[in-house]
Specification:
With 108 residues, the protein is mainly α. It is 66% helix and 0% strand. It contains 5 helices and no strands. The longest helix is centred in the middle third of the chain and has 26 residues. It starts with a helix and ends with a helix.
């Protein structure tokens, strides 16, 4: 059955549904690939899945963005505590301990 004009218009003009891959590699699939000797590797099978294909297509831009962000992060100057002592690294565990003690006090 071909869709009628109204259904066809809806298909063409409405927002597409998000697709989720249900592809899962099972132990039996891995064994079959190992036994088959057909030259397939598990990476080949995964590379053909819908989800992995999308990730592979985005990988170059993600790596480029990551490199740019790392450069930006390296250019941010170190923050020096204006109060001096104690150092932030020493203060953080004390603050965490104080929160735990505060919660314990309110529970009693």
């Amino acid at each position: 059955d071909a869709p009628d004009q109204k259904q066809l218009t809806q298909i063409m003009t409405h927002k597409a549904e998000h697709l989720n891959s249900r592809f899962r590699v099972t132990f039996a699939m891995i064994l079959q690939l190992r036994r088959g000797g057909n030259g397939f590797k598990i990476e080949d099978v995964l590379g053909r899945s819908f989800l992995e294909n999308g990730r592979a297509m985005r990988r170059p831009s993600v790596r480029r963005d990551l490199a740019r962000r790392v450069e930006e992060l390296d250019q941010i100057p170190l923050v020096q505590c204006i109060f001096g002592e104690p150092l932030m690294e020493e203060y953080a565990p004390w603050e965490t301990e104080a929160r735990v003690v505060g919660v314990q006090m309110h529970e009693q």
